[in-house]
Amino acid sequence: MLVSENLGRPFLKWAGGKKWLVQHINALLPRDFSGSYYEPFVGAGIFYFTLCPNRALLSDLNEDLIKTYEAIKTDPDLVINMLEKYPYDSDFYYSMRARKPRSLHGHAARLIYLNRTCWNGLYRVNRKGEFNVPFGRHKNPRICDADNLRNVSLVLQNTKLLSADFEQAVQKAKSGSLVYFDPPYITGHQNNGFHMYNNRLFAWSDQERLARVAFALSSRGVFVLVSNADHANIRELYPDFYKYRITRKSLIGGLNSSRGDITESLFSNYPLEGLEAEII
What we know:
Blueprint: H1 25-28, E1 37-39, H2 46-51, E2 56-60, H3 63-74, H4 76-83, H5 90-98, H6 104-117, H7 146-156, E3 159-163, H8 166-169, E4 178-181, H9 194-199, H10 204-219, E5 223-229, H11 232-235, E6 242-249, E7 261-268, E8 278-279
Parallel strand pairs: 1-2, 1-4, 2-3, 4-5
Antiparallel strand pairs: 5-7, 6-7, 6-8
Helix pairs in contact: 3-4, 3-6, 3-7, 4-6
């Protein structure tokens, strides 16, 4: 499968997004990939929208997120009509944050609005499952990109959507398909508090389970690509996979400062040909 022309772009901001990595997309694809594409931690879906695959399954444990994709897929204009009426206003923001829409499309409009206007585009809920990110101070944010939402809907038509654990989501992946795992993780803690910081997002037992699932898929002829933290304990979980260390600039560090460099790991059961990365 070759990378298709972008028909739609990610319509959400999402922590841990891989915008910095998609510039390497052609090097990340297996040469013989012709099956379905699976992305079990979809988030904003930048890999998916870059590929525009003919057949895909997108999934996430975040039910709010999957409902939003489903609403855009089924009728983007219903969502657009709501969003176009929503003002960029602090009082309206907190009123919307407190709402619990009953309709699928009302739910999607609420999440997109909050995502585009909250602080730092962060998705965070409290122990009750209530969205609790404060209002963001932006310069004229684009709340509704109607053309893109309609294009996203077209891209999603041949895509299945599922709110599920990653292991369940890839059960039916067949030989020749590609599964891309991008679990939640924090960078910058390679030598200090790695488990403490990362267990808040994705427990170590889940990391171990993810590796077992990756090996099981590989044994069935499925292409597997995993992005993860650059840490020795993580690398040890993938003894028979190709391992790469890729460096990017921190969003915090200066462009000319080595202190701004962040390293992350990639693991695959096929060689990443032409990738500008250190083999580890």
